[in-house]
Amino acid sequence: MGEDEEEVEEYLFKVVIIGDSAVGKSNLLSRYARNEFNLHSKATIGVEFQTQSMDIDGKEVKAQIWDTAGQERFRAVTSAYYRGAFGALVVYDISRRSTFENVGRWLQELNTHSDTTVVKMLVGNKCDLQNIREVSVDEGKTLAESEGLFFMETSALDSTNVKKAFEIVIKEIYKNVS
Ligand code: GDP
Ligand code: MG
Predict the structure, then answer these.
(1) Which of 75, 83, 86, 90 has a beta carbon 3.0–4.6 Å from 13's, enabling a disulfide?
(2) CB distance 71 to ligand 1 below 6 Å
C-alpha cells in the first residue's frame, strides 16, 4: 500500500443525479468532474460514479457523484442507486415541460429510497436554450420553495452554474454533518 492510500479520507459523501432521460444528467457530471461536454452522448456505460474533491474550511471533502446508466428510460432506477446518498440533484430540461412535470415523481422515488435527510437541489438544465424555453425561472423557483429544495438553472453546454449547483449541495451536506 502506498503512502497516499494510508491517508484518512475525512469526508466522503454520495450524491445522486436523477431526472428524466436526456435532461442532461450525464453532461452535468462530465462538465463538473472533467470539464467535458458531449453533444451526442449515449447512455453512460460502465462508469457508476465519479469522485470530485473540494476544499471546505481547509478540509478535503470528496463527493462520490452517481450517474444512472440510462435505466431511467425504463423507470428502473434501483434502490441500490439511492442507497447511502446524502445529496441529490433532481434535474429537468427547461425546454421540455414534461421533464418538469415529472419532478414530483422523482422526488417521491428519492424519498421512498432514502433513509437519511438528503440535501436536494432542483436543477433546470439547458438554460442556454432560452428561445425554446417551456418552463419559466419562476415556476422552477416556486416548486423548489414549496418542496424545500435548493434551486438553480444550469447549462452543461456553456457551464453556467454547474460547479455552483454541485458545490452548494456538497457544502450543505458538510454543514449538516460537521
Ligand atoms: P441524460 O440522459 O440525462 O444523462 O442526458 P445527457 O447528458 O445524455 O444529455 C442529453 C442530450 O442533451 C445530449 O444530446 C446533450 O448534448 C444535451 N445536453 C445536455 N446538457 C445540455 C445543456 O445544458 N444545453 C444543451 N443545449 N444541451 C444539453
Ligand atoms: Mg445519462
Answers:
(1) 86
(2) no
Residue stretches of the chain with pLDDT short of 50: 1
Q: Tell me phi and psi for residue 173, to 5 degrees.
A: -60, -50
In what side-by-side order are the strands of the sheet with 49-56?
49-56, 59-66, 11-19, 85-93, 119-125, 150-153
Long-range contacts of 41-46 (CB under 8 A, 24+ apart): 42/70, 43/69, 43/70, 43/73, 44/68, 44/69, 44/70, 45/69
Q: Report the predicted TM-score, pTM, of the whole model to 2 decimal places.
A: 0.93
Closest ligand 1 atom number to CA of residue 23: 3
List the one residue out of 19, 26, 24, 37 whose CA is nearest residue 77.
19
**Cα of 28 from ligand 2 centre, angstroms:** 9
Pairing assessment for the beta strands 49-56 and 11-19 based on DSSP bridges: unpaired
- For 151-162, how does the pLDDT look when each residue is reduced to its tens digit (9 = 90+)? 999 999 999 999
